[in-house]
Design goal:
Strand content: 15-25%
Oligomer: single chain
Radius of gyration: 15 Å
Enzyme class: hydrolase
Number of strands: 6
Number of domains: 1
Structural class: alpha/beta
Number of helices: 5
Protein name: O-acetyl-ADP-ribose deacetylase
Largest sheet: 6 strands, mixed
Domain Macro: 1-170
Distance between the termini: 15 Å
CATH architecture: 3-Layer(aba) Sandwich
Order of helices and strands: EEHHEEHEHEH
Strand order of the largest sheet: 1-6-5-2-4-3
Shape: globular
Pfam family, one: Macro
GO molecular function: hydrolase activity
CATH topology: Leucine Aminopeptidase, subunit E, domain 1
């Protein structure tokens, strides 16, 4: 597992994860950037999924091709909107990461890049989200082998939160 600052749309992993909305119709932030960089094929596939199953519920994930991206696939997951932490937001965020990895595993995708889900326009506190994201991924990796799972973070503050959270988790697990 690696953590870096960068642009998720330029990653060369087999799949990148999109912090999507439940309607799968594009949006702002990571979602908008992925749709813009990936071209109309991604939106066309999202519309097919929407027509077939009505979108994607919070905490779940669906997959499309990567369009014009380096990544062959985009895993679209819907994280929770922060509402103070009393409406199951932690569990929904955990589920968004878990179902994304489970979908990648099911499709035999060996490398995945994640953004920081729900910490932009959905206002999930970054430090809390980082701990949930990293713990969920590390727990999943205990039973599943991937060539690489990468966190690609947009700014220094988010990068710092993820590095701090990983340090805390490793200390708690007895790793330095």
């Amino acid at each position: 597992m690696s953590i870096l600052k960068g642009d998720i749309t330029t990653q060369d992993t087999e799949a990148i994860v999109n912090a999507a909305n439940s309607g799968l119709l594009g949006g702002f932030g990571v979602d908008g950037a992925i749709h813009q960089a990936g071209g109309p094929q991604i939106m066309a596939e999202c519309k097919e999924i929407r027509a077939r199953q009505g979108g994607c519920p919070t905490g779940q994930a669906v997959i499309t091709g990567g369009g014009l991206l380096k990544a062959r696939f985009v895993i679209h997951t819907v994280g929770p909107v922060w509402s103070g932490g009393h409406k199951g937001e932690d569990d929904l965020l955990r589920s968004a990461y878990h179902t994304s990895l489970a979908l990648a595993w099911e499709r035999k995708i060996s490398s995945v890049s994640f953004p920081s889900i729900s910490t932009g326009i959905y206002h999930f506190p970054v430090e809390r989200a980082a701990r949930i994201a990293l713990q969920t991924v590390l727990d999943f990796l205990d039973g599943h082998e991937f060539a690489e799972v990468r966190f690609v973070l947009f700014d220094d503050a988010t990068l710092g939160a993820y590095i701090s959270a990983l340090t805390e988790i490793r200390q708690a697990r007895g790793h330095v």
